[in-house]
Specification:
This protein has 10 helices and 11 strands. It is α+β, with helices and mostly antiparallel strands and about 325 residues long. It has a 7-stranded mixed beta sheet. It has a 4-stranded mixed beta sheet with strand order 1-4-2-3.
Length: about 325
């Protein structure tokens, strides 16, 4: 979009998403003015979604918008941050007509209200396709209190916040390969674990959200921490749908590796000293030791995890 059309669309579609926040300047400027919050650090993260890659072609536009916000909120959740606001860049292809764009904005509005987010600015462009949208999201943590990937220490335990593999199985359900409506919904509308903010601040030494795959994201913690992580696949928490799929999957080791590598779970993998881990109420799935990399075990047998998850090219 360009010229008057772009500014009219901004005023009509996007200005209401600021909810009158003065720092957004009514989306009438090229920037926002973010006031300092004494005693807090401003946390900034960024993620994008591409049609046909991160959500199916033909997806309901409001669901695509909600997933865009939620994958960014998941990053804030892993940092133990309180959501604040976001900047949006969106590229509309010709197939996204006025009705689709309005539906997309309704999705932003719905989850903006749910999670207390205000739109602070951004940009709209046209593209021959596919549709792409990117969010730069802001959150607050008490000064010096951001939970990093790089804090794991030998002797820590490795924990996860919920079921592993539902993202992979939900994608399969969305493709019609599996009859699991609940898992399909979790894939389309993931739930960022913002409810863990206080517990993460109080107890953990390192954390990451599980977007690339449990094994890969545990590897990010290991690399950033200069330590080795062992994961025990028999300890993975699984949903009822994942258990049903596992029961018919044949090779248990191969199936568990797929679940632990699939990504799009948007749970939290974290590390904590044993005495602190008890206060988290999460599932222990491994431990941190001296060394490097990730070792994957199933009932004492070492498995080859391959890439362990999504590999960014």
């Amino acid at each position: 979009m360009s010229g008057p059309d772009e500014f009219e669309a901004i005023a009509r579609l996007f200005r209401p998403l600021t909810r009158g926040a003065p720092e957004a300047l009514g989306l009438q400027d090229d920037a926002a003015a973010i006031p300092a919050r004494p005693g807090y650090d401003l946390i900034v993260t960024k993620d994008a979604v591409v049609e046909g890659v991160h959500f199916p072609i033909g997806e309901a536009p409001d669901l695509a918008a909600r997933k865009l916000l939620r994958v960014n909120l998941s990053d804030l959740a892993a940092k133990a941050a309180e959501p604040y606001g976001y900047f949006l860049a969106v590229s509309w292809p010709p197939s996204w007509d006025a009705a689709a764009r309005e539906s997309f904005v309704r999705g932003l509005d719905e989850d903006g209200r749910t999670f207390g987010l205000v739109l602070l600015g951004g940009d709209t462009t046209s593209t021959p396709g596919p549709m792409m949208a990117s969010v730069t999201m802001l959150g607050w943590v008490p000064a010096g209190g951001m939970v990093r990937r790089g804090g794991a220490r030998p002797g820590d335990l490795v924990l996860v916040s919920g079921p592993i593999g539902d993202g992979l199985l939900g994608l399969m359900a969305a493709r019609g390969e599996l009859a699991e409506p609940e898992l399909e919904h979790r894939y389309r509308v993931p739930q960022p674990r913002l409810d863990l903010r206080d517990a993460l601040r109080a107890h953990v030494s390192a954390a990451a959200d599980i977007s690339d795959g449990l094994i890969a994201d545990a590897g990010h913690i290991a690399e950033a921490s200069g330590a080795a992580i062992t994961l025990r696949l028999e300890a993975l928490p699984l949903s009822d749908g994942a258990r049903r799929w596992l029961a018919g999957a044949g090779d248990k080791a191969e199936a568990l590796l797929r679940l632990a590598s699939g990504g799009d779970d948007y749970q939290i993998v974290c590390t904590a000293p044993p005495q602190a881990a008890a206060g988290l109420g999460l599932t222990v799935i491994g431990e941190v030791a001296e060394g490097t990399g990730v070792r994957v075990l199933l009932e004492g047998r070492t498995l080859d995890p391959g890439a362990g998850g999504w590999v960014h090219r």
